[in-house]
Design a protein that fits this description.
heterodimer, A: 437 residues, alpha/beta, Rossmann fold, six-stranded mixed beta sheet, 15 helices, 29% helix, B: 278 residues, alpha+beta, 3-methyladenine DNA Glycosylase II, Chain A, domain 3, Alpha-Beta Plaits, 2 domains, two-stranded antiparallel sheet, 10 helices, 11% strand, elongated
């Protein structure tokens, strides 16, 4: 079995929801769609208060080259467009739609939809449809997929890597998708290959998902250009650069993009969304969210319409337990604690992790003992202890020279530090300040 | 000859040779430095705060000794008598600089503002601000981790126990601006200071609309404009639901303080009563 070589850790996977089938969630009575759901410029609203919208309609268009449109998952009336708090409590503009009662979004848009086949669409059409459907990287990075599929002149995509690693502990949304809908992932992969004129694809899955591996192997049995690669369980294997190294042995140059190594990486959920958008003419209006936690009564995987409040998902999973310490958006390694549970689901929300109080407290940081464990686990070969000190001292130029901008924010350094030093906190600060230099 | 004598002679000769070498080197490689640079530097605070716009106290002393005029060159850390003494040393005329002191444009600490969540990360405002809104609902207010306190080279800032809003000791503050750069929420401003005139400022940075601001904090400025109407010196402007007093125009009459329905306006002359006591 393959894996990447430099650094990495083995956190306890705790995939408690791996065997729980995905449950569709009913549309919320009030759907609040954030205009910034992707990296890049926020989307520009196309509707105004009072307009009535139908499910699947584009309500905001891309606000720039790196940006993605937003579609409504519900039919109803636009109430207002105003700033609401995101999970981190910062104000961001959103479209607020009151859902019409008794409607069935699928049925309403069925007749207007245009079904296509992989053979008949041209590469340019695929990229256009992906752009119009508002598809972004659903692994959590939310980079607009249209931009990723538009291979720059002079570069050539030699291999597509489909990311089914899901190395974050607790999260199982990709695992469930691979088990439940492998054909959509394979169709999506074929479409990505066609759009980028790439001859082969590799689906990378970590060894701790045997059912997903079996399902995907079965789905690609007649397609020689796609192979399923089983990978050693190691975090952060789901990171783009690490996954490319693990599956193909290619190394992306520091500061470069995967395409510099001839590779394009897309998440399995992104591939499935591409298949839905191109073949079934369905824009991205929902995603699978794992709602999980050791003390939660009914943890599970949910197919959630965008704009559903996070508190509603927690209710579906049995309500917030008494001793909750933190609610984290995403996985325990890279996710961020949320301070407003009324914030809506966005395209980047892969999981909601509820940690009891005793698991969520940060230990008191001690002095660095120069053990260099952070150096040995850093998948990018950085020196986290040094970058942290430079961050504390505000020496941003030196941090830049030491490659702080290459940090993935995977958190291996903070996880492994025996003195519980807040390494990543300061490296994140380094990165933020370096961008301002 | 006893061994001790041998050692003494050998060491003595080495010492003599080394001494002669050092003397020759000191004479040959001597670099002349204007003695006034040292004299000026002794009068400076030595905090290397950068308030003068130069990299540190030595750079200031060099600049002062070589400049043709002291116009625009003034140390914020020494008083007028000190600047006159420096001017005397370098044989120039001291140019009086604006005296400024730091003020903090936030009134309430997280302990008093309704906290919505608990921040248990590292005690650094810069890190906390990079992560999320902060412990209360106000995304503009003081985070209370004390980046400004640590940045102050003159020990003029402090956070009292049981409070998380820093206070400025005006007798120690020299207006160097280190805290201004350190605050990730941009809450510190350097205000023109005249001992004879009270400093009056809007102790709030909340730019949310009135109803939202009122929910977030009991003393948030809502931009109602009453202070602007009361001001007879045209010193107050309101942008994004937030009033701001221009310290170069303000005469410190304090007419705006009591009419403020939100008790958002602070002064260094008297303790702010309603908000601070409740």
């Amino acid at each position: 079995m393959k894996t990447f070589h430099k650094g990495g850790i083995h956190p306890n996977p705790d995939k408690i929801t791996a065997d729980i089938p995905t449950m569709p969630v009913a549309a919320p009575s009030v759907c609040r769609l954030m205009l910034s759901q992707a990296i890049g410029a926020p989307a520009k609203p196309l509707v105004k208060p009072g307009d009535s919208v139908t499910a699947g309609q584009m309500v905001a268009e891309a606000g720039g080259f790196v940006s993605a449109p937003v579609h409504t998952p519900v039919s109803g009336t636009v109430k207002k467009i105003e700033a609401i708090r995101n999970p981190q409590g910062m104000w961001q503009d959103a479209i607020i739609i009151e859902t019409a009662t008794g409607e069935q979004p699928e049925a309403q848009s069925e007749e207007k939809r245009q079904h296509r086949t992989i053979e008949e669409v041209t590469p340019k059409e695929i990229i256009d449809i992906v752009g119009r459907a508002g598809i972004v990287g659903l692994g959590g990075a939310t980079f607009p997929t249209r931009v990723k599929l538009s291979v720059p002149a002079g570069k050539k995509a030699e291999v597509i890597v489909i990311n089914g690693a899901e190395c974050e502990p607790y999260l199982t949304c990709d695992d469930r998708l691979m088990q439940e809908n492998p054909d959509a992932i394979v169709n999506g992969t074929l479409l990505i290959m066609k759009a980028t004129d790439c001859p082969r694809a590799i689906i990378g899955i970590e060894e701790n998902k045997p059912l997903a591996i079996e399902a995907m192997r079965h789905a690609v049995r007649d397609i020689p250009s796609i192979t399923v690669e089983v990978l050693v369980k190691k975090y952060p294997q789901g990171s783009e650069k690490q996954l490319i190294e693990a599956t193909t042995g290619r190394v992306v140059p520091a500061g470069g993009l995967p395409i510099d190594a001839g590779a394009i990486v897309d998440n399995v959920a992104t591939a499935a969304a591409i298949s839905d958008a191109v073949l079934l003419d369905l824009p991205l209006t929902s995603r699978i969210v794992t709602v999980t936690g050791p003390t939660l009564k009914k943890p599970g995987n949910f197919l959630v319409p965008l704009g559903t409040p996070i508190s509603a998902l927690i209710e579906l999973a049995g309500g917030l337990p008494e001793d909750t310490g933190k609610v984290i958006g995403g996985g325990p390694m890279m996710g961020r604690a949320m301070c407003d549970l009324e914030a809506p689901t966005t395209k980047g929300l892969s999981g909601v992790l509820i940690l009891p109080h005793d698991m969520s407290i940060r230990a008191q940081a001690g002095p660095c003992i120069r053990c260099a464990r952070c150096v040995s686990v850093c998948p990018m070969g950085l020196e986290p202890y040094l970058l942290m000190t430079l961050g504390e001292l505000g020496r941003w130029e030196e941090a830049k020279a030491r490659g702080a901008a290459n940090c993935l924010e995977c958190g291996c350094c903070s996880y492994t530090c025996p003195a519980s030093r807040p390494l990543l906190d300061y490296i994140r600060l380094d990165k933020m300040e370096i961008r301002k230099l | 000859m006893p061994p001790i004598l041998t050692s003494l002679i050998v060491l003595g000769v080495i010492g003599l040779i080394a001494g002669v070498l050092l003397y020759v080197a000191a004479k040959k490689f001597h670099v002349y430095e204007d003695p006034r640079i040292g004299e000026v530097e002794e009068l400076l605070p030595g905090a290397n705060c950068g308030g003068c716009g130069l990299t540190g106290c030595h750079a200031f002393a060099v600049q002062a000794a070589t400049a043709d005029t002291l116009e625009g060159l003034s140390c914020t850390g020494v008083d007028e008598a000190g600047m006159n003494r420096i001017a005397e040393i370098v044989g120039l005329k001291a140019a009086p600089a604006r005296k400024r002191k730091a003020i903090i444009k936030c009134s309430l600490s997280c302990e008093v503002r309704d906290p919505r969540n608990v921040y248990d990360g590292i005690r650094s405002c810069a890190v906390e601000a990079s992560l999320y809104q902060g412990e209360s609902d106000c995304v503009y207010g003081c985070l209370g981790c004390g980046d400004c306190v640590r940045a102050c080279p003159f020990d003029a800032m402090s956070i009292k126990p049981g409070d998380s809003l820093p206070t400025v000791d005006l007798s120690k503050c020299v207006g160097c601006g280190k805290c201004v750069a350190a605050c990730p929420r941009h809450l510190v401003e350097l205000y023109d200071y005249d001992p004879a005139r009270p400093m009056v400022w809007v102790a709030c940075s909340n730019r949310d609309r009135g109803p939202v601001a009122m929910k977030e904090c009991t003393v948030a400025c809502i931009g109602c404009g009453i202070c602007k109407k009361k001001c007879t010196h045209d010193a107050i402007t309101i942008t994004s639901f937030l009033a701001h007093i221009d310290s170069s125009k303000c005469v410190g009459c304090g007419e705006c303080i009591d009419p403020c329905p939100r008790h958002s306006i602070a002064t260094n002359q008297r303790k702010r009563t309603p908000a601070e006591s409740n």
